[in-house]
Design a protein that fits this description.
Bound molecules: zinc ion
Radius of gyration: 21 Å
Shape: globular
Number of domains: 3
Length: 390
Amino acid sequence: MIVDGVIVLLQSNTGFDLYLKDCETVFFRYGQFISWEKYMILRIFLSLVITLSTSAVHAFTSDAVSCVQHQLNSAGYDAGTPDGLIGQKTKKALTEYQEKFGVLSKRPLDQDHALVFCRLLGQTKADFKQHWPTNAGMVNIVFGDLATPTKTADKLFVARIRSKVDEVHRKVQRLFGIELAAPINVLIGNSAKDVEALKKSYEPRKIIGFTNTATEICSSFKNLSATSLPNAIVLCRNGDARIGSEIDTLWLEFLIAHEFVHAYQFQLSGAIQATSDTAVLEHGGPQWLLEGAAQVIANHLATGLPLAEYRNRMLEKLDGRVPKLSDVDELSDLKARKNEVYRMGVVAISDLIPDENYSKLGQFYVELGRGNDWADAFEIVFREAVLEGQ
Ligand SMILES: [Zn+2]
């Protein structure tokens, strides 16, 4: 229904309401509007977070920056000798290019967002893609202790991981229909110690965002756990756990699919080359959407359960304690009430894409990469879907 230019979608049976104000703002609240003042304060706060996170850029070379430099040079805009460092010449060349051909992204050219520019530039001309980082869009699997497996169980695990990672990668790629400009790194450890060693061996590139300890990452969950960082997916197997017995095959596929969605989110929105070890996806949108997207896509690919049914299962698990979306949108919420973030994410997404058009979940991150804040990106991608649902 539409009231005074305000589109209101009521999901009374789920206990959460989603309000879209006309123009560019989006408000989620349980039966009430967030005030305009509060919303603006939130926006200013978010833009500050982004500014702070991107201002602490050190001299740091990257393939993504070299990519941008090569592409600008081929287009006839002098970015200097491609050296992976962002200097005045590179910035000037990009500015001139964008003045002539239109804005690729409203984000600043820095190490955090260079990959986004590299990808967007590559899409303007097929020839430019030759400058994308090596193995763009491919998967780069790195085993630690399991690099040369000897035990039968280990060999089977390694073989299964390789085939599943490939299979899931193809499925996610097909579903999003989006080309990535960098490889997806998948690091697989066999214990906390192994994960720690993998992290070290990955220096000096660093596994960006590795703030949890390896023990936390390997916290035994169904004998195979995972975490996603801006430039890598880290999987941790519990010692001798075997595929098909201690490690459920469906779980393996679900977990890998979930993490691949995060890899897309990171690359598309532009946090992959963050230079600090504490980098997180600051402008990645609300946590319920970040995790909910990973959950619904993993469910779609691994279990094939219709979204409506998956939504009902999550509602049952919430057991009447349906949180406000605003209570599951911060990183701190993910830490404090992870299950609620995941479950509420699934419920909300099922209302955003009643047509099960999962590619929209990827498009949202493309819009973030173009420099839209999450409220604007949300409006661009989901507004139509919400209207269809009236
Ligand atoms: Zn996740």
